[in-house]
Amino acid sequence: MPTSAPPSNRFERRRAETRQALVRAARQILAETGDTGASIQAIAERADVGFGTFYNHFESKAELFDAAVVDALEEFGQAIDERLQGTDDPAERVAAGLRLSLRMVDSHPELMRVLRHRGLGHLHSDRGLAPRALRDLERGVTEGRFVAVDPTVALSALGGSLLSLVELRFARPELDADEAAANMAEMILRMLGVPPDDARDIARQPLSSA
To answer: How far is CA 55 from CA 20, 46, 71, in A?
Structure first.
């Protein structure tokens, strides 16, 4: 029996690894400065690939940096999804999602720096946390858990609040992040029509430790 993968499989695997190395390098740059002015040569060197290799995967720096943001958004969304497994109430999902997101500033600092620098332009992206949050908002409205608001407008408020909290957390590392996130979650729930006492309780429920 052969012990090595077929050449085509090896080729595709290496190609995927090279592409991911470039994306990872772009993510690092975005996390550090948010600046997309780095040269292709600098990006290739950081990724430890040849200059010409870049164009086997991306037509431009803009395409690469877009891919880097999408990659970060997907990692972000999947991480929150995993933590919310078993939580069905839309109000609980919205509150916990916001609180868990802020905790990721400490647990996933590079990822959250990318979102800090580039998140505003992706509030309504079809990748990452946005479509997941929109789904919960739409369901909450449909089921009467939330008042009859436009879910897309509500997503703008939720996403803007989260990005503001992330910025605050980076700017003031001494901040009691859990308390700030709970307060913000309570305000968001009340905005969505959840009764004040319920909003306060939901915003302070124990979070999954998974």
So the answer is: 14, 16, 19
